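Submission checklist for the structure archive. All mandatory fields must be present; incomplete records are returned to the submitter.

[x] Identifier: Nuclease SbcCD subunit D
[x] Organism: Streptomyces violaceusniger
[x] Residue count: 411
[x] Sequence attached
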Amino acid sequence: MRMLHTSDWHLGRSFHRVSLLAAQREFIDHLVTTVRERHIDAVVVAGDIYDRAVPPLAAVELFDDALHRLADLGVPTVMISGNHDSARRLGVGAGLIDRAGIHLRTDPAGCATPVVLSDDHGEVAFYGLPYLEPGLVREELGASAAGHTAVLGAAMDRVRADLATRPSGTRSVVLAHAFVTGGAVSDSERDITVGGVASVPADVFDGVDYAALGHLHGCQTITERIRYSGSPLAYSFSEAAHRKSMWVVELEVAGEAPSCERVDCPVPRPLARIRGRIEGLLDDPDLDRHEEAWVEATLTDAVRPHEPMARLARRFPHVLTLVFDPERPPEDPLASYAQRLRGRSDRQIAEDFVAHVRGGRGPDEAERALLGDALEAVRSEAHEGVVPGEEHGAAATATARAGATAGEVAR
């Protein structure tokens, strides 16, 4: 049995306000071509078909096109809903679609009812475990606790119980959308810690031949039988080093470890994270290779440059995000805040604050005068008309106003 494992399509998602619909359409073309040319026997999609519960119409149309093309190939496809999907919306018409060989598994109650396919070695049972939100499915699954490990463990107990009733030699594949301990995360996955600790141990999948996982966006191997395909496209700059791909998995006889091969996905545009002072970023010849990439630039200039985005865009026309992280002089990590302030006047503290956020460049004469005037004004206001018992409140107000002035100077 040769199957293709993919997940986390996130149809309808953009990349820093840049539409990815054309790139997602290209991925679907690639998927269909791979199924046809690699003689795939089954396709498994481990959740997050859409990027949100109510996807845009263009994303729904692309999904519809993918279903029709897979059905036309006559290759069975098993899909589950992920934490980004609306299980009920995705599952509408599942019974009818099932007849076309597209098996949508979105109801936790059906997790132990497999899609059974056959090859020369016998039967393969595909169990679809949609994303299981602990607080919603605990009672339905009879889980011992309202945590991810408990509910996924309860679902897997049902899978193993069903598998035990099947003919000897039946191979098993589980599709699940979860965060398995040991997996590497990125910035683009939605947090699922609500309902308990997010990660589940890998041994929850004991007893099956292959676990096709979704949720984490990096392609990775937890064990030789437990793998993430990752997302087919990068959805954050934290994925700049990812190799986007799918798994072609060969299942031989029961008990033998599957053989797995990565198939690369099309890359619409490379990602680059560059860092340095703006003049260096504009002049460094080593950055020529990033001029056609989507760019995240981190500027380390002590003072915010004039029109940095516009200047960077002249060299990097696809720059999308700008981060400011000024270089700062080393500080004594052992010195407490109180120790650093001891013996310093309010004016010195304010000037030091300006120097700190500017990476070491303190205020000039005009700015020092402005800070001095602000401090003197708030001191006067703090002591005029203050009644006994209100000294601390007035002092706090004065400090806050002085701090605001220092912040304006720093900017």
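[x] Structure attached
Curator remark: The longest strand covers residues 122-129. The two ends are 63 Å apart (CA to CA).
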